[in-house]
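Lab notebook, bench 4. The sequencing result for the construct came back, and we need a structural model before the next group meeting so we can plan mutations. Quick request posted to the team channel:

Model the 3D structure of this chain.
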Amino acid sequence: MHTDFLDSLLKTPRLYGAQVSPDRKWVVWVWANMGPYADVFIAEIEKSDSIRKITDFKHDTSVLSWVADSKSIVVNHDYDGDERFRLYEVDIMSGVSAPLTEEHPSYFIRNGQITPDRKYLIYGANYDFKTKKEIEPTILYRHDLETGEKKQLSYPTKANFLWPQLNAQGTHIIYQQNDKSPQGEQIWLTDIEGTDNKEVLNFGDTVKISASWHPNGEELVFISEAETYRRVGMYHVKNNSIRWIVDDPLRNIEDAYIPRGSEDMVIMEVKNAQNQISLVDITSLKETPFASMQTLIPVARTPQGAWVSKYYNSKQPMDLVVHDTHTIFRPITDVFGKVNYTSQDLVKAENYTWSSIDGLRIQGWLYRSPVKALGTVVLVHGGPTAHSEDVWDMDIQYFVSQGFNVLDPNYRGSTGFGLPYQESIKEEGWGGKEQDDIVEGIKSLIKDGIAEKGKVGITGTSYGGYSSWFAITHFSTEYIMASIPICGMTDLVVDYNTTRPDCRGYSEEMMGGSPTEIPEKYRHASPIHFIQNIKGKLLIIQGAKDPNVSMENVRAVEDVLQKQNIPYEKLVFEDEGHGISKPENQKTLLVKSVEFLKKSFSTN
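Done. Here's the predicted structure in token form:
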């Protein structure tokens, strides 16, 4: 039964990257788990049963943008998770693809948009095409599709995650830079010729700003940090003027944008990791709730006035639906029509809270086994600048089906609980009180009779992997008997020196400097220097092509494990990058993880 259920979970379509066409006739998205690779699918919004797969690259593929005529899209794929993308234009009717950039690039490409006149391709790349060398900063390029000429439009001096956005008219591009400080981010604007390149939004060197285009191509919607909260404004390109839309220190705004086909702004407020969506009339500033139903995230408005939205929760894998504010008219994707289980076979997320060592209240999601639990699994989200939602999760549902309770904690540093909560992780840097938040959650579960001492395991990917390493090297087997770090940092200095260039600024932001500037802080926060404390069971998981948390993290820690004669198991996937994504590899990982946890708890 459980093997059959795992196979069903592995075949559950996982949706992301949904975008509606400029003419609002089509919607495209990516589905993982519909085959060995993630592919792009398309549907005509007003027609039922019109879903078609339009890519088949034998690599995981993502949607980047629509071309203005609504006849084609720009997509990318990497090579087994190496994140070195190649861009293509794909005709939505025929599925015929045309390569736009080189195969197996030696650099990282960010975004990709074709101008309405089809003359240029806009993207970012950490590459100097004159010297033919990979560099640290990501440069904004205008790539001539006829001649191949690549014109540099930006001149950042520091490594950054530059994600350019072309307006609908193809006249201007916005992008972000953080040359002033890794703590902040500023918005820059250039015309398509690169003759008027300027900083347009800057509220301080250490203040972060995000922005997106209004569909009119003349205004920007932006979110700026303001001491203890975020506020939302609009910037007019021609007038160089700012108008504030929402400026309320009591609200925790995480996102704002104007969807295609709408003049209203979507405001996403998050309270205790739960979304609250509203619409703001940008003229009158009147605000109304978006929908009476939960977990609906608007994508675009149809010409008929309905909405295309993402719909999901822990018992509902993500679907695209057409609806008004009160009723779902029709699912576009209909996930439950493609699997052989129902929502009744899934376990609902329960809100669970506890106090950390300093009294700070921490929230997480608790999933209870329907039978007497064999143990508890703590699944730690990555980031750390992210948060776990009430959302369908294959790993969690499988662990629960195998007789484990699961806790998914939103430790300090997570988004979804206000800016001070998110920023508090920087007070001590990685390896600080956020790790205490996790173990205090375990203690709370034990106190409440949900978990048992000696029967708790921890796992997670990226920062979740780092937390798994930290837990097994710092906490007793009463609270952490088994650890399964997936693509997790072991030595923060090794990680800093071997990661993607644009990731180093994030390490500096979180830690308060570089390893050269604060070597002892990096050493103290690195699990590799506490390997001698390991008393529990350890299973190391890694993607061999991971450019984010590289294999060097594993090689370095294995050296220490072997020198100290500490037993461990290891599973390396040669065809994976930062995280394990291919269905056959996910199955191997989940089956191995459950076997490892059961064995670890039974030998206690």
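The chain has two domains: 68-338, 347-602.
Will bring this to the meeting.
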